[in-house]
Recover the amino acids of this structure.
């Protein structure tokens, strides 16, 4: 199943915002234990495209693969924030995008071949990178 995550309103790109406390903050999608597809926090937007495995189990869809975390019934993707120092990514915050919050008809359409897209802002109400459980607007095309 193909997934596109579209992020907007990155914390380092906000007009008039104070600089992030860390010098080289990036956000990426976590694959197993590693953040990949890194985008700088000052970019105007961020787009990630990944492929996950999907299968039917007892008439329900289950997703898996190296991008997917959590146990069956509670699967999610991580957007991982960190400071890049040389070749090292020092993670300090993560956001969870829960598959259980994708409307059933939307997830089913993605399973049947449409592109699943989640769109979300990446800055919280305090001007910091989003974290914890976030709720993208999900659609298919």
């Amino acid at each position: 199943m193909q997934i596109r995550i579209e992020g907007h309103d990155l914390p380092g790109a906000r007009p008039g915002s104070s600089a992030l406390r860390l010098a080289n903050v990036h956000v990426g999608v976590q694959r197993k234990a590693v953040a990949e597809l890194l985008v700088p926090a000052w970019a105007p937007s961020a787009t990630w495209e990944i492929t996950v495995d999907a299968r039917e189990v007892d008439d329900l869809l289950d997703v898996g693969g190296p991008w997917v975390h959590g146990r069956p019934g509670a699967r999610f993707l991580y957007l991982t924030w960190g400071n890049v120092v040389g070749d090292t990514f020092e993670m300090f915050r993560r956001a969870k995008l829960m598959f259980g919050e994708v409307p059933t008809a939307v997830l089913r359409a993605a399973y049947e071949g449409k592109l699943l897209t989640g769109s979300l802002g990446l800055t919280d109400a305090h001007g910091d990178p989003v974290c914890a459980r976030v709720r993208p607007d999900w659609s298919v095309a």
